[in-house]
């Protein structure tokens, strides 16, 4: 099996040639020293860790899985050591707040590292990913005292984080949750309840596990307005910052899952666990969403990561596997990569992964601008674009990521179904990303129900204008062959958006949601392909290998993937009526 | 978890109302006694066995898996007993040749039973399914002596069958296989070689396992023309028909697979195993294809079976799971089946499963006509339609079947990812059907490379004319709302077919294949929906529940699924060039 190769060449192309990363950073106070060379050298090192340390643990971790013995979680062989080495090397703190010991590097670098983590070992990547999400929520909403106590250790990675939201009867609808938090009279609370599906709910790396738990105060109203957020550590922290007694929480069971076997996904019992309020009472969901939005982007990147890795393996296999004669008449056996249908499967994965990486970099850049730009309007506009793109990245990257994993497995034929080759693990692992952190259906509802209405609809309009301007600018460079299909698809998306805003209503929105989100994603990928092709054309003769094939991939995308927008647009045009006609008992 | 409900009501509607089964059978000598009532009562009984005996073993079989100890295969608890009860009840011999003890019932009943077997327990269904495929090949190609010795026991199910084709370096390209067969001088051959991925390669039910093995004679030419087919039993059969000594073959290992864990998929070692030639030397692939075509239809039905079961579970869950408020303003929590996006996932599965069942019945009817009709031209025409439809059923049913399993799992949210609910097993089990018996890419190549050219292209033309005639006939009954989209999609398919025949060439065919097959399948489903809606409309007030919702499902299919043909058509129109541009080392 070919080893995973971190896509550092493509990163250099994207940052240096497509997104003008050096200038973008120069515009952000504090980031003047950050540039493409720095990013590439950081990611080269990170890539070595991912490919050299984490990928070798991917299949063994899947086979061994996690175990729970006498209430103690054991992760698969090698995982704890790898985690400690990861922390030791400083990878946890890459983008962390320098006030609490972080390195304060841009989001752009973080998401590119996240992709490599996800390619190498999805289960492992969840540990730092969830910790970072918890840090995000605490950073925005926790008291100074909680921040001082917890953030340094969490940012370094010495302590890990977990988010405890879901209960057996409260998943998508968190308003139904029943966990309770009763004041202890000393500023702390006693939290009682059972949570399920808690990723990284415990570990055996040492340190502490910091749970962010949603629960209800005694006088809380029903529904989401009665939910508050609490910090409850596995081990109570003494006044001097050292670890004290165990808190009253325990792992009730490990979930038996389709994949991510190296992740201890826990049923957590809180039996009067001591916790502290984070943010205001009744505003827990709001605080948790700070964490969840960061997590949603992270989960989208997981879809990209799996796609990149699975596609790489499939390409390597297709170059070596000899079957059949050539479609051009070459006597067989020939490498199966010469068969058009195999090429199509491989090209779809590649065209998705590279467009998604570009879109992820663009989105992360908006996040950096939203935090660091000196101009308040610019920050606000960037923040709104991130909000718009978050559900698209989460849902589309994980849907296409899963499809890429399945197609990459298909390239292996029967060998893809056998565990030894590792391809079926990608499919099983990729599947969770479509489900957790809000199912992809929930993401689509977020897009049509909330994000399209941001700033009275001006945010999507601004996004479409931005895409159109880029397409227009690229026209003289890459020609109508590439730009016209992308512009036509954009027009379809604008039409669908207009129909949604005029025909309105929650039923039409719900009926449109997932098709609309996919249309939105395909248009965004087309935009990225035009930008990448234009950047490659700009380089002329000097184009490095990672850039030279961009035009060919862009053409493939326009010819064989973007046409899906025609069907989506037509289906959207038919609206909700055919979905709502059948009574529930007649299905 | 809701129990699987065999779709006998829908079967009664299809046979009685859509396909005029009673008249169709009356036209076939020997089948005058067969009618809808008989079929329904047979399938009701079969359904009871599937739901009552086989489904309860589905998840336990997945959890326990098969084991190999000292060369002996052990299937999961309960499977051997269930198999013997299945044989005892006569289910193996349903459509078997009466000359060898079979009940000789039509293919239509067989495929409907196969669907229920696949819904209840895919792993189990492979045992009788593969035996039947082997019977098919032997029935057409083996000597009278071999047939007399083996067919009665195989048709009864007392002995099982396996097909041993694949080797580590010869999968899709069987021309590369290296297993050898050397004459023993007594009419038998000594077979030596290793085969992989051999489903039902062994079992612990008792009786015998009859292997059909592809191997090369000593003087055989290279490639497919040097391949011959041999029958090699696990236990040698004495002259009096009793079981004698063990043959020189052994199970080298059980494959570790993504799914179908209750199936002992074997690495088989033949160490000078005694075998007998089936058919002519060098014509092994031809003989094997008799088996494989039957198997390909069976595998397509597996996709349908999984889709039906997974969709049923998702519908039941969506009726009971309460989350969120209603899109129509109803205060929450409401059953999630009222959410438009959940409905869409459920309706897609239902609209696929019912169209696929109808198409399967139509195809099986052609198979019955191809064998039993008194008129030779009618037989030949029906046989050609079956040949045309075989790759479509195999590939499209398994692709849509997998997609339905994935969507049904999605309806469960996080619970779908947990093993306890059984939904993730459907996804893992469904996945194999896209790969084995010729990958779905190979099916698509078969469609565009061979089947479109049948009888100089007259066979697809005749099929399109038949669809068009049905659409025209339905127009006054169901109206343009339903017929026009189906007719438009048919026009797209005819256009794509014409382009393929004029632009020709293996590269264009390969580049078009999978998109073309999907377009073909969607058109076929649309055709079936028009026919079903027309039949339901014909019933007027008398429509039973299974028919009453047909119109609603037909409308949904036309509005939200058939538009995919627009994108497929446009992608096909772009041809092969964008697929072939990138050199193999530039991926």
From TrEMBL, chains A, B:
Cofactor(s) essential for the protein: FAD
Residue span, Acyl-CoA oxidase/dehydrogenase middle domain: 162-271
Listed name of the protein: Alkylation response protein AidB-like acyl-CoA dehydrogenase
Leader sequence segment: none
Provenance organism: Xanthobacter agilis
Domain of life of the native organism: Bacteria
Upper classification of the organism: Bacteria, Pseudomonadati, Pseudomonadota, Alphaproteobacteria, Hyphomicrobiales
Stretches assigned to the Acyl-CoA dehydrogenase/oxidase N-terminal domain: 80-158
Keywords: FAD, Flavoprotein, Oxidoreductase
InterPro entries attached to this UniProt entry: Acyl-CoA_dh-like_C_dom (IPR025878), Acyl-CoA_Oxase/DH_mid-dom (IPR006091), Acyl-CoA_Oxase/DH_mid-dom_sf (IPR046373), AcylCo_DH-like_C (IPR036250), AcylCo_DH/oxidase_C (IPR009075), AcylCoA_DH/ox_N (IPR013786), AcylCoA_DH/ox_N_sf (IPR037069), AcylCoA_DH/oxidase_NM_dom_sf (IPR009100)
One Pfam assignment: Acyl-CoA_dh_N
